[in-house]
Amino acid sequence: METVCSPFVEEASSDSIEEENEEEDKDYSQKEDLAVVKKQELTAWAPYFYSRVTKEVYNYVGHEIVIEEGLDSYAGMIWPAALALCHYLDTYRDQLNLVGKAVLEIGAGTGLLSVVAALLGGWVTATDLPEVLNNTRVNLCRNTRGRCRHTPQVAPLSWGYDLEHTYPSSVYRYDYVLAAEVVYHHDFLDELLATMKHFCKPGTTLIWANKIRFESDLVFIENFKKAFHTRVLAEEGDVKIYMAMSREGDDEVDQGLEIQDLLGEEDGRTGEEESTDDKLSCGFQEVGSNILEDERQEEVEEEELESDEEEEEILTSKDDETDEQKETVPSNGNISEHDDSNQTVVRRNWVPSIICRIDKDIYHYVGQDIVIYESIDSYGAMMWPAALALCSFLDNNRHTVDLQGKEVLELGAGTGLVAIVASLLGASVTATDLPELLGNLQANLMRNTRGRCRHTPHVAPLSWGYDLEHTYPSSVYRYDYVLAADVVYHHDFLDELLATMKHFCKPGTTLIWANKVRFESDLVFTENFEKTFHTSLVAEEGEMKIYMATSRFGDGGDRDGLSRPTGCRLKA
């Protein structure tokens, strides 16, 4: 049919116009359908159940506190020392009276500690890096609006040495400075100490809670004690709460001793000299190791659990039995006497009314429900988007990337989801990570592969580096596939990671790496990655990319890896 578009055609029949309109509508409809298809292709790796931000519920100061965590930084998580300090402030509210006091929190993160301080009557300013303040502000607004005498404030604060310009001491003076878990895993400990010294002037009390994890923690604590007059208010194991006063002027040093007297400490007694019976206890337990221990107990008592509900009942009963064996007293923080031995029994003083419980996320891949428990002590214990993307890629492209009977190694396995999916797809999997993460990893793999897979997956410690030929000789440890997801995020071992990839990705091995670009360092690593291997980008959406790579040593290995479709897109 001719198109009616010529300037010389003045009229056209009504029938031809109607036919033309129908054709245009049909063309438009087809274009619309194509757009929908393209949109579906772009979102094709959305998992059946996507990990969403955790919402934790606590009870302090007689209020229910709802905290939403973040995903992309340590500041978006709830940490054990923060829970310890919250409960401590709540329990000893009469001795540590925050009513009407100016309170500053440094490294506020999710804002839980600031919320508790505000509910206790403090005039609170919560500070952290600018990029995390949105979540902090939302949590403070949600939990303090209409409940507090003073509306808490939120302000950006980057630790450093020149704070007198931005926060002059003559203007910004505080009765209390609070900090919890601010030492963990970063390179700004000197700046943190300088910031503490800037705000902790004579007349200010600094209260800092921390869980010791690395040697750098011990070095910081030593420097902290040199910088301030310090006392240990409470401790159990690696979790300690310190009170500190400025060394600028002897008159002000003793102002905090009144608090110690109210708490029942003797004059001249330091935290190091306290006896075990007098130390306050905490009920926070290492969740990752507990999960593995519970799994072992389940194997003894029952060969197989019929449902997740039964598993939770067993775990609950185990916790109850443990509490009875320890003969603790009711959770009011009071001290009772043991009838048999006359020894003082101290209640776990900082167990919150509703303690932070690790998420149990359920995913669906390879036709199976996969139950994943996260942990809270590191990036490796969280679920990240690139891991979900890689799981969907392997599940939806199982005929292209056939793992059946193949030897598969995963680097930085974390919670173990990728390793579980690879096992369910028929691979013989070895999941590796740092030794301290293997407890939770082992528990998740056991829970989700037992009785389901041809090959039982293995767990092994692996620290990335250059000397792996001694511990993992290439003649013995050879793999068909090496998998990695979100292993580049926020650490200083990118060169070691690339060396590890090179060590395991020999001719005949295919490396599949999924990553979400967040920092400039990601781009630098990607550039070095592409120089090191023959690579092809097999899937992407925005900053999420999945690469397939093979060794540059040996054409046979290269052809084997790159013979797979380089334009492969994720299937819905």
Overall description:
The chain is an alpha/beta fold and 572 residues long. It folds into 4 domains: 31 residues; 217 residues, Vaccinia Virus protein VP39 (Rossmann fold), CATH 3.40.50; 52 residues, no CATH class; 203 residues, 3-Layer(aba) Sandwich (Rossmann fold), CATH 3.40.50. Helix content is 35%, strand content 20%. The strands form 5 sheets. Strands 5-4-3-6-7-9-8 form a 7-stranded mixed beta sheet, sandwiched between helices. Strand 1 and strand 2 form a beta hairpin. It is elongated, with a radius of gyration of 29 Å. The N terminus and C terminus are likely disordered. InterPro entries: Methyltransf_16, SAM-dependent_MTases_sf. Keywords: Methyltransferase, S-adenosyl-L-methionine, Transferase. One of its GO terms (molecular function) is methyltransferase activity. One of its GO terms (biological process) is methylation.
What attributes does this structure have?
elongated; alpha/beta; seven-stranded mixed beta sheet; 572 residues; Rossmann fold; 20 strands; disordered C terminus; 20% strand; 18 helices
Offer a quick outline of the entry.
The protein is an alpha/beta fold and 572 residues long. It is built from 18 helices and 20 strands. Helix content is 35%, strand content 20%.
